[in-house]
């Protein structure tokens, strides 16, 4: 009966994508539900998964909005 | 001083609606605030309610995005 | 397939109780699940409810921990 | 390693704005990350902040959607 | 920079255990972090995981506290 | 009417403390409520703050429970 909430920034995982794709969402849902079956023996039918996409200007890290933080750190995507 | 968070899929409750209506939201807010008054004696003024609507492709059940799960199970709406 | 999260302070609703009782929790679970059936036509079997009890020193209102806030305002319980 | 979630209604803080601005979001992210450094000695790099903007019709207070509640109470913005 | 929240009932996954073990928690943390790397290319260092264990009397399903629901349905663990 | 949720590990901020103290909690509550007043003009009375303390074995970073991650990285506290 687990509930899994996955929060990510609303952006693509590779060049050309500007958001998480439906296939990627399905892979997250399938993968984490399977993990709860494998580790805690929770039936697939008992697990809810909610994916929340968050605008990059609404996500902070290092005291900065995430895009400013990445620039400061020379990071690409995370 | 309760906080109630209600997460539902973003879709209509009956044919012709494609999302939760303002009236339905008001009924949820009023009903759950009243419940907290009745059961725990919490004044209406002390209760916050937040409704979060989640795209169906962002909601997983049974290891699948919810629309695929409903199809597999022959369910209509839930 | 709704998820309802109810956050309340960990304290009793009447003199002699120092926490929410099992009966009160059952009443919250039953009441809010029924509300989602009545308002949005969600089957009872599709609704998860999670009650989170929060220590009063971990809850803030009016810029103060809630017990200090109540004292300042002359409130009893909320 | 703290996670701070800030939920506010999606509306402007002053006349002419209809939502929280990018500058205001940056000020919230910077301010709360600094607070965690000052109070708990958490490095800025260890703090995540997520801002969630909630439509006013999805926010309830006093048993009513928030705009109806404000009208009833003669409040402007909160 | 994802945040994953995993909510489960506070109980053991097999006879003799009365809660989720530290090893099971480590397997959940490692597995879901790897999933986010595999599916969305998120570096392990950018993912936070929070596991929340919820008392069974605080978890509702089917309009009932979960232990009553399981009894009604003849379920064991989920 | 904001809601701020602050999640931190359950541990002390300095040697000799094994958890967040009541004074530190009050400083977090007061500080973040003031921040919302300063930045978004939200009255103190309209802000709720909830602090959630999470056991270190329930918090993951870098694919590991946080204490293992700190050891791997040579970190002390974060």
From TrEMBL, chains A, B, C, D, E, F:
It comes from the Bacteria. Keywords: Isomerase. This is 4-oxalocrotonate tautomerase family protein. SUPFAM superfamilies: Tautomerase/MIF (SSF55331). It comes from Paraburkholderia panacisoli. Residues 2-68 form the 4-oxalocrotonate tautomerase-like domain. The keyword Isomerase applies. InterPro entries: 4-OT-like_dom, Tautomerase/MIF_sf. It holds the Pfam family Tautomerase. GO terms for molecular function: isomerase activity. Belongs to the 4-oxalocrotonate tautomerase family.
